[in-house]
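Ticket #4471: complex job returned nothing on first submit. Input attached below:
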Amino acid sequence: MSQGDIVEVKDLEVKFYTYSGVVEALDGVNLFVREGEILGLVGETGSGKSVTSLAIMRLVPPPGIIEGGRIILRDSGKQQDTLTMSESSIRQIRGKDIAMIFQEPRAYLNPVYSVENQISEVMLVHRKEELYENSVASVQMRIIDGRKAVLEKQKAQLDKEKPEGEKEKAELAKRREAIEKKLGQQTTKPPSNNEIASYRRLLRAERYWPAERARQYQKKKAKLEKLRADVQKQKTALEQKKGTEGQMAKINKQKRALMTWSAHYDRQYAELMKLEPYQFNLGRGARIKGAIRVGAIRFPARFNRKRQFKAEVQKEVVKVLKSVEIPDPERVSRMYPHELSGGMAQRVVIAMALACNPRLLIADEPTTNLDVTVQAQILNLVKTLKKNLGSAILYITHDLGVVAQSCDRVSVMYAGNVVETADVFETFSNPLHPYTRALLESIPRPGEPFKSIPGIVPSLINPLKGCRFHDRCSYAQEQCLTMKPKFLEVKPDHYVACHLYGGS
Amino acid sequence: MSLTSRWEDFKTGMRPRLSEWRFMLKRMRQSNLAMAGLIIILCFIGIACLAPVLAPPPASNRGDPWIIPQDQTYLKMIGPNVPTPPTVQHVFGTTYYQYDIYYGCIWGTITAFRVGLTVVGISLIAGVIIGTIAAFYGGVIDEILMRFTDIILAFPGLVLSMAIVLAFPEAIPLNLSELFLGISAFFVLIFLGLKRDRTGAIWVAGFSVILVFSVLTYLYHPLILALNIGKLDKVLIALTLVSWPSYARLIRGEVLRVKNEDFVEASKASGSSDFRTITRHILPNSIYPVFIVATLDIGSVILTAAALAFIGIGSPPYFPDWGQIVSNSESVITNGVAIVHNFYTFFIPGMFIAMFVVGWNLLGDALRDVLDPMLRRR
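Support reply: We reran it on our side without changes. The output follows.
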């Protein structure tokens, strides 16, 4: 309970107004998560672990109502109480500052969207502007690089030239200077679309188009020469022909047609001869592969913002999928939820939660429905994520083995109360609250008979007065029946709510 | 980005969807009835597209194809009450007042599509919006919206649409001054209240100009526009008003089912707004049954429209509409002999109606087989 806490829950009360009565699901829950730690939240079924996590997100489903308490969110010295926030500002926090991983990954993925869409959905809610700016910046970087490459190419061409006279030398020096000046400006100023177009034109004119034009010119010339020769041949053949009057009329008609064709070809040939080979007009729609390629850098043909944005989002999705150790993220990102295995689906759900780099990750029994081997993988993943991202994790589970293996601190819940919070070693070696002790004793061990806590979890509709554990507690005293114990720090960093340790 | 790389991207993006469509087509091709329905509908679409070629409107219509030509010589020689059986000139014969049945049937196809698609389209959109809002928010909103739909559902559709058609005026006087005054006053207040910055000021100024203008015209010379409503438009409006509640009910049930799915909760937990949750997560998972019912409904809407026309409150007698042609034949089938004699006056347009309805029904059934995840098996 200090400044290092990301989230601090104070005396949280949640009640469910059902037909059979008011369920006092949470009765003064005290919880705090420190920066960069894994806090395990353990308790039996119905002790209010999930309700606590939902209350932190302010997503308690109706008929549940958050009746009292405070949930304080700290962000670099700034404090916010999520319970007094407006709906729209809490929406800004959900998914961005606090994200959630759920128990059944398959059910938490929308069956109609591919993995990529699922994750980008979350990104688009919170990181749209950021991603858009990134995409624009990346396009600009590409343009700058492209321009640099063009200019350097021009410079290289200039270097190759061998000037003869003094005048030419001066001219070349001037041009080189101009290019160098432009090169100096690169890093500061992104080019306008006009500039891109002009550079593209330059590129085409200087490097690719003249050769292509000459090639096409030669092709056309050869074609025309062949056609003209053909026509000439036919003409001579016709002139040698003789026949009756009717046949002659036919031949004359053919001759006239040939004359027009030959005139047409002659005209075309004469026009072609007027041109230099590099002046040949390629016509509209002429396209040369690689015309806008300069080395390995490619100019964006047009500033297609939407497309760039999409590409940026895709890149980000793949990055997130990589961070949760999914093999072949490009392929997986195109898959649909039904094509994923359980462990893979859980990884995707974790990726969704991590899409906006949350500061607190609430994991609501993420491994309960998985195979033991996959469970171990996911646990290791959660641990590495904590290390890499530095976000705190609230790990909800009822498996004490998982807690012992992965958590830094433990909070134990019983019937809507947090009864004990301590370091994980402290909790396992020196449990103070009778419930924690009983819980630890009831872990099955080989060769020993099963132990269980006598009695049942009390109904929360008419909960016991005083300490809610007193009917199952072997240390119960007089005051346990009437007074609710306070949540106190009895040892350094060891909090207990019990009358045995002065909680009255 | 070259065109080819763009095409490649498009192909990879569309692959799952394309395979889905291919699967749907394959399923449809396996079923003869589905193919029959598809072919019938395609034939009708062909007829509708080729109407000006199949039955060119005569010069006497003066460019208006929506009048069935009358045979003037028959009208003079035989009179209006005796129809003529099919001849080369009138392929399907002529009916009451010597209207050409062939022309009416061909152009009536367009009317049928117009009625069916407009009514079903508009009522689908309205029903989906209302039903989704009711189901998603629940509580009082649900009660209000659903009791309202219940009121409409409580009346038989045909009777209610009859009442609406009869009660609807021929023309609605629309006072534009009043309308503009209301709208601009609303926006001025909105922008004054909510957007107190430079853009807000510009909007306020703009709307104030309209406001002053409308106040002046309202005081001195109100701009009144008469909205003429044709007879067919009345039928369209009435049928739309009657048919949206069924869609609202259907989508409400679906949304109530999907609303409690876990992925909706996940969407909320990731900070999506309600609108985003509805459009991105709930509707894509719940809209298909509505599409199926809509397809089936196009046929039944045509039947209701035909019934209205037969009662005599549909389109005018010269209008090319199948129901109207059947209705016209009413006065030439006064006795048993006439019914047998002049069967073509009602049988041919009746067959058009029947084929149209059967076609849509078969297609709707096929769509259900293809789209319903419970019925489809790979």
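The radius of gyration of chain A is 39 Å. Closing as resolved unless it happens again.
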